[in-house]
Design brief:
By secondary structure, the chain is mostly helical. It has one domain: Cytochrome c-like domain (Cytochrome Bc1 Complex, Chain D, domain 2). The protein has nine helices and four strands. It has a two-stranded antiparallel ribbon with strand order 1-2. It has a two-stranded antiparallel sheet with strand order 3-4. α6 packs antiparallel against α8. The chain is globular, with a radius of gyration of 23 Å.
Amino acid sequence: MKQSVLALTLLAFTLVATPFAAEGVKVEKQEWSFQGLRGSYDKDQLLRGYTVFTNVCMACHSAKYVSHRDMMRAGFTEAEVQALAKNLNMNIDQKLLTAQDNQTAVETFGKIPPDLSLMTKARAGLADYTYALLTGYSEDPELIAHTFPKGLPAGAHYNKYFPGHAIAMPNPLTGPDMVTYHDQTPASVEQMAKDVTLFMQWAAEPERIERQHMGLYVILYLVIFTLLAYLTKRVIWKDVKGH
């Protein structure tokens, strides 16, 4: 019995706490509000991330599976999302699409920037990798020369967390105070990276918190069911052995 309960506990811990690492690149683990069985999406941080996404990322990228109405699942009221959409001259059911056309994107970057709706789930390392990538740009000539003795490939930028370290995307967070937050949080590069990563994580898994909370109830149910089954087995076999 004790072994069964221990096995279930270890399984629960493994599902929640197992870290991910980006392929070929070591990234540091970050603390996120959505992690753990009691995790949640912090509404203020989500709004800060939305601010970075719509003011910086949407210059080139889209989130074609996300609309303002979807943000009501994270605790925003209809009036709040109406106001946010109005600031972008959108209605709450329109998707977050960049105004940049494909031809301009190809001429500028050599390729069409990927949609970011599911990006945190599409990369090993998940949210940790996204944050690391956004803060991993460097223009240190010695570092670049050490990695690329013949110089960076044409049109590439150095990023210590990107596999191969040569990424086509220019640094989107070039300095602090690129945005103004609603709650007056200082918009450092690290803060903006953390906030927009949270927003992208929510966009990729808006149902995550519901799933985590349901998982807790399922684990508790399995533990109680195992205990009851064990006690029932003892009662039944006690009578059988008595005869």
